[in-house]
Write the structure tokens for this entry.
Amino acid sequence: MARGAAKLDEIDLKILNELSNDANQSIPKLSKKIGVNTSVVYSRIKRLVRRGVIRRFTVEIDESQLGYTVSAYVGVNVDSKKRESVRSGLLGIPEVREVAEVTGRFDFIVFLRARGLEELHNVVSQGIGMLDGVEHTETFISMRQESKRPELKIQVPAQG
């Protein structure tokens, strides 16, 4: 396990796996699925929240149902003296969903959603490209996107 990582047992991992698939299920239903007493599941969830392992319970929205049909990644190069203000500016653009500071040929990779190619063009050229400190952008339109949830497993300590 990584240094500073929470110590989790098999019950914790079963709870996390089930909640990551469906956080809306009731504690009694979850308890039955993993074969653990309801009060134990309830107290474990509270402990995982208190320790920060579970940061929040949320809803997953299908943005295409709201008209956001274009997904894109934008590589952004910035003036190093303006890195923080560019990061803040990127996060202030409504269509931006994630900003990652990365190694390699870009300083940031930005994930965004747009309601079409025209809106994508405007976000990149008038939004991202006009931020003070942005020197270059390169846009990659996502043709198909899939994601998966992590499958959590217990790591057995090495014996030495």
